Amino acid sequence: MTYVIAREYDLLVRGVAPQEAGVHGLPPESFDALRAFLQTPVEGHKGQEEVIARPTLRGTQPALRLQQWVGVIRTPDGTTVELLPKTHDRAGDADGETVGRSRALLFKMLAAAGDNYRAALPADLDPAQMRLFEVVLRYALEVLRAAIRRGVPHRYREIQEERAGLRGRLDLSRQLRQPPHRAHLLHVTYDEFLPDRPETRLVRLTVERIARMTGRSDSRRLARELLHALADVPASRDVRRDFTLWKLERGYTHFAPALDICRLILGELNPLTAGTAARVTAVLFDMNRVYESYVAQLLRTQHPEWQVQTQVKGQHLGRVLPQPSGKARPVFALRPDLMIHPPGQPVVIADTKWKRLKADRAFPHGVGNADAYQMLAYSEVFQSEPGQRVLCLIYPYLAGLPNHLPDIQLPGGQTLKLLTVDLHQETPTIGLHGWLDQRGLEVNS
């Protein structure tokens, strides 16, 4: 079976690939299955529809240009494509980073972006050295194990059965219809405290599916242990209905992280139909969203007194002049990545940009005009309070860039700050805090 490790914006070609960095060949059948799946529109970072890969040509070979999505994809014939984050430090090997370093970076960011990957793997397992598909499955098992160890949710269920002895309440209506040859048996109704409920049924089905998908013996062994703990729970037969019925009582809140795991395994990893015949198994993450969540979590952790909002909706840049109906229709929706509310200071608007600045160019190192125009639009709508208006563009740090980039004064009096985050530091910092602290002292003096 073919196993391909690619990065964002690499090229996948149909057939044999040339010996060239960033170009990967796939068997024709696998490529065709991927082409159908990867061109299915999905919801992107700002709510707009986009595709995971764009069709192109490399010479005469059909090809797919990957976008900012990372994760793992498996085709029906077993071909697996592992998509890792693009390089931000080109020192080292020809691709800029080792595969292990890219995996470690991805899971560090995912751990900050959501609860699914905050479970601790056993000390003898190094996720940077495991294939991404297996790491996803093992993290899922570890989260479920932690939830099950703290107690499997139960609830009372009404049981109706025919038995020799009385238990609970006698069902008189059914007993009166009992035929003479079964008069020695009683129809009873009673309540029993059972683990059979929507949440546990979904977890049972999730563990069963992981046990079938994983290729690691230790993961299969762990799955069997969890299935033993859920021996009295049937697997879900109506996944959609059980998800709608998911509701945990106060004593079972420790089971809440299992919801996202079940959605991941039963949703994203569930075989998806692409086209008419191709069936592809995939779990993918939009790096724009992951990076935004990672930066927001860094800010919240380092400055718990700040209020940090993400993807604020409901505001528009303009309105259509009143129509005959008398109602003005809003147009040009605005959705800044981050709104930061430092105590006692005006709001700061920031956008996270999962892009490579160009260290070999003069300042502003390739920052796009459209990004600056977008920040001006945000400022007009979201920064109505008096005072100095601060806008930030936050990029990943790239070797060769200055540690501190100059501020940019915009025509309306706004200050545009270009900040970078060194993702390979153990605890990255964002340079916004020092400037805000200094400004706070000036305001209070």
From TrEMBL:
Organism superkingdom: Bacteria
Pfam families from the UniProt entry: McrBC
Name this polypeptide is given: 5-methylcytosine-specific restriction enzyme subunit McrC
